[in-house]
Specification:
Blueprint lengths: L1 E4 L9 H8 L6 E5 L7 H6 L4 E4 L2 E4 L3 E5 L8 H9 L8 E2 L5 H15 L3 E2 L11 H9 L2
Organism: Microbacterium phyllosphaerae
GO molecular function: exonuclease activity
Keywords: Exonuclease, Hydrolase, Nuclease
Length: 142
């Protein structure tokens, strides 16, 4: 059995049923695709963890684990910068909220350097209020 997991990081959905049923068998292979964010089952499996808690039970994972980096559905930094360059007006701020902290900060620096736009990586649970006044002022300058 070969189990191919999309970029869901093994945190929900029917993949959990497949892992529970097929993960303990050493003749099977679990193929992870795309980013496996820190703290997720997918990241732990890639780091060598061989038991995952699934539906309240510890499931031994004896299957081979493989990774394919090239199948992420997310845009990479070059694609994001190219998309931002098409914006008719620069935004008042850019908040990088996706990716591991070091990668997010690298993108933040690149946005500031290449685009000249103010950018930040917000802290976990940080809230930012975007007012209608800012949106209306931006729309009127268009």
């Amino acid at each position: 059995m070969i189990i191919v997991s999309a970029s869901g990081m093994l945190d929900g959905g029917r993949i959990l049923h497949h892992l529970r049923a097929c993960g303990p068998e050493h003749r099977n292979t679990i193929v992870l695709t795309g980013c496996q964010a820190g703290g997720t089952r997918g990241a732990r499996l890639l780091a060598g963890e061989r038991s995952l808690r699934i539906f309240g039970n510890d499931v031994p994972i004896r299957a081979e684990v493989a990774m394919i980096d090239a199948m992420s559905a997310h845009a990479d930094a070059d694609e994001l910068i190219a998309w931002m360059k098409r914006a008719p007006h620069p935004p008042q701020a850019v908040y990088v909220t996706h990716g591991e902290p070091s990668a997010a900060d690298t993108l933040r620096l690149r946005i500031e350097r290449e685009m000249g736009w103010p950018a930040q990586v917000p802290d976990q649970e940080q809230q930012v209020q975007i007012t209608e006044h800012h949106a209306a002022a931006h729309a009127m300058s268009a």
